[in-house]
Design a protein that fits this description.
The protein contains four helices and seven strands, in the order αβββαββαββα. By secondary structure, the protein is an alpha+beta fold. The chain has one domain: Electron Transport, Fmn-binding Protein, Chain A (Pnp Oxidase, Chain A), CATH 2.30.110. A hairpin with a 6-residue loop joins strand 1 and strand 2. The chain is globular and about 55 Å long. This is Pyridoxamine oxidase protein. InterPro entries: CREG_beta-barrel (IPR055343), HutZ (IPR014419), Split_barrel_FMN-bd (IPR012349).
């Protein structure tokens, strides 16, 4: 048994709010997927928007390796938060472990998400309707918040989504 104090703080409303702000204000994230051919993690940058329930959404091309990986294995992680001036590790960031759910292009959700995505990323109008592009909802499973030096938290999916 260790006498060392835990570096993880008890999740409180301030941590929940900071996590939600990081996700909701982000225009992009680093998306980590599992490469189906090698089994290695692979990371890429994706544009993000928010569905009405607070679940992050991404628009991706079926030609990209990260889309092919999500189709084979929906497990992913997304890193939200931009470093500001100075030490990039001093700025808050949130890693969300999620399950990627492809959005049916014929479904009701697609029109809603398309509208929300265009509001966040108007330039995506150039390619949003290309036949190889699709949306995925990144449904949170849990998250790890680093709110700055000495401020680490573990959050549940309920801490992140709007019920």
């Amino acid at each position: 048994m260790s006498d060392k104090p835990s570096i993880i703080r008890e999740t409180d409303e301030d941590a929940r709010n900071q996590a939600r702000i990081l996700v909701h204000t982000a225009s992009h994230a680093a998306l980590a997927v599992i490469d189906p051919e090698t089994g290695f993690p692979s990371v890429s940058r994706v544009l993000t928007a928010m569905d009405t329930d607070g679940v992050p959404v991404i628009l991706v091309s079926g030609l990209s390796s990260h889309t092919k990986a999500l189709v084979k294995d929906p497990r992913a992680s997304a890193l939200f938060g931009d470093p500001g001036k100075g030490d990039p590790l001093a700025h808050p960031r949130l890693t969300v472990r999620c399950s990627a759910e492809r959005v049916d292009q014929q479904g009701e959700a697609h029109a809603r998400i398309r509208k929300l995505f265009l509001e966040r990323h108007p330039k995506s109008k150039l390619y949003i309707d290309f036949p190889d592009f699709c949306f995925f909802r990144l449904v949170p499973l849990d998250a790890s918040l680093n709110g700055g030096f000495g401020r680490a938290y573990i959050l549940s999916s309920k801490d992140l989504v709007i019920l």
